[in-house]
Amino acid sequence: MPSQTIRYAVFIASMAGLYLSAAMLVPAAMDFYFGNPDWQVFTVSAFTVGAICLASATANRGVPAPFSRRLGFLVVNFLWITLSVTGAIPLYLSTLGLDPADALFESVSAVTTTGATVISGLDSVPPGLLLWRSMLQWFGGIGIVAMGLLVLPFLKVGGFTVFKMESSDTSEKPFARFAVFVRAFFAIYIGLTVVCTILYAVLGMSEFDAVNHAMTTMATGGFSTHDASFGAFQSPALIWTGTIFMAIAGLPFSVLILFAVRGRLDALRDPQILAYGCILALMTLILALSLRLSEGESFGMALTHSAFNIVSVVTTTGYASLDYTLWGPFAVALFFLATFLGGCSGSTAGGIKAYRIVIIFSSIRSGLMRLIYPNSVRPVRYGSVVVEPEMQRSVFLFVCAYFGIWAFGAIALAATGLDIETALSGSITALANVGPGVGPVIGPAGNFSSLTDTAKLILVFLMLLGRLEILAVLVLLIPAFWRE
Length: 484
What we know:
It comes from Hoeflea olei. This is Trk system potassium uptake protein. Keywords: Cell inner membrane, Cell membrane, Ion transport, Membrane, Metal-binding, Potassium, Potassium transport, Transmembrane, Transmembrane helix, Transport. The radius of gyration is 22 Å and the shape is globular. A hairpin with a 2-residue loop joins β1 and β2. Helix content is 66%, strand content 1%. α8 packs across α9 (207-218). The chain has 20 helices and 2 strands. It has helices spanning 3-23, 25-34, 38-59, 69-93, 100-111, 127-155, 162-165, 178-202, 207-218, 236-249, 253-262, 271-294, 299-314, 329-341, 354-372, 389-415, 420-431, 453-467, 471-474, 479-482, and strands at 381-382, 385-386. The protein has a two-stranded antiparallel sheet with strand order 1-2.
């Protein structure tokens, strides 16, 4: 591989690390205001990391390499590794006393918007550290949308190219100029975060809780400032507000931009949005009826908690309003299934994603029809658009790799001494970037602190694999990728 390509990828990652080091001054100011000594940790980390990243950027500055698939793969991987390691430094040096594996796990969980945590006693953690965790998730959400809409479609490994395949616009991007699109995306992402913050504050959260939860809601990350997660706020109005904003964050941002900026109502007819909405509505209704019949809960409260927790898991946010593992085996099985699904392509959500589910079901239907009518032509469709064979292969390759890595991850976790329930749910919750698993150890009422360092590092790798759509990481393991 040309050295210019590697150097340019390092330059981009170094600039991202430089910006993140500057962001450390925000929690530093927060801790300084409240008299917490961790302000010194954030300040020292900011200047140290900033100096290293600035030196690296300066050393690798030069003529930009032409964008290619190899450069794209390198940039995606280098960016997430840089952000993960950089984000872990103040966590490791802080008064929390985290070891390197714990600090890296918490940082990777944040920037991949997974939401799994190794920190207990969140209610008493210094505000600067809580804010830093939320900021990492919010920044991670920005990077995920940008990657899913602008980078991965070009690399043809994921991030379904909504610009070419969505039914509302089959030929053009939402905006002809890239800069206009970027401004529109930032305006909507920041605007939704601000509106969510205001509503949370008006409905009963403290200003600090509102800011943190709004950032992690829009990032579908799920980090909370309380051990009880969203269960610390039992107001139905707050719970429904969180449900709505999580559902919005699971929608394609390109469609949100078309709708908000251009008034394109037809953009909402994207087939993956219909599938996404039907999955949420059906699973919520089934779970609410189950709770009403088995637990004797009023249908209103059953619907409230079912909607919140189903939307939280499907969008891979990972909040919990209650310990849903206590709702019985049927509920646990339903949530385990929901862990695999994910939101829409081009959103901050993880998982398999709705567009792949649409294509898989269309492929199955087309195959069954050809069994009945062997001589018929039954193309695989995404709405009114015919899905090209290359896209079909990409989807099935991803899904096969997804389930294979989940199985190998579960076996690796079981080898560290975890029980089969924890190993199976831990592997998929990391790969899908959901956060909580099932069972007493890593369920919504627990956390990942009791796991061994080896298990945590396995989960770190799975979180990065899932966030980068698997194939974008695995391609770096092929020797041919590095050859000239």
